[in-house]
Amino acid sequence: MDVAITHWINSFAGQTPLVDPLMIAITKVGVPFIVLVVVLQWWSREDRQHVRHAAICAGLAFLLGLAINQGVLLFIHRVRPYEAGVSHLLIAKSADWSFPSDHATASMSVAMAFALQRLPRRAIAFFAMAFLVGLSRVYVGTHYLTDVLGGATTGIVAAIAVRALYREDSKLSRFATGIL
Prior knowledge:
It holds the Pfam family PAP2. InterPro entries: PAP2/HPO (IPR000326), PAP2/HPO_sf (IPR036938). Keywords: Membrane, Transmembrane, Transmembrane helix. This protein is mainly alpha-helical. It has one domain. The protein contains 7 helices and no strands. Helix 2 (about 20-40) crosses helix 4 (about 100-115), helix 3 (about 50-75) packs across helix 7 and helix 4 (about 100-115) packs parallel to helix 6 (about 145-165). The radius of gyration is 17 Å and the shape is elongated.
């Protein structure tokens, strides 16, 4: 089923001249754009300390999620769908294994961090961006759907771990959110 859904999503690649460049752009600049939006949260005018805490949580979850992925890659060596003949690749080949998707991990960790901090408008915006990034990775042919779902799961787990370990009322948090 994973192969069939991946193939179906990727089957649109190369068929729509307007969608291909959009998906390529999202897959290339989606995560850096999300990082930029998180950084810009530092200067929020509403509930500044809480939003700053959420931005720090997002950054920590981002880093933790990608670190977890590196551990997973030591044990799971899944070839990319374009190497298995499942997808048509629209971007340059990747040098690492397919599972889990770092892009999905990074974007979902940010979205979940903002959701866990009870900032619903921001969380919805980040979830929408994470969805587009994940979809773009399958569309451009570099990931299976389950690679994206696995990466999203890692991002969620990382955000939950950060939420449990980095408390807003701690001395460290008060110090960090007071910078600038």
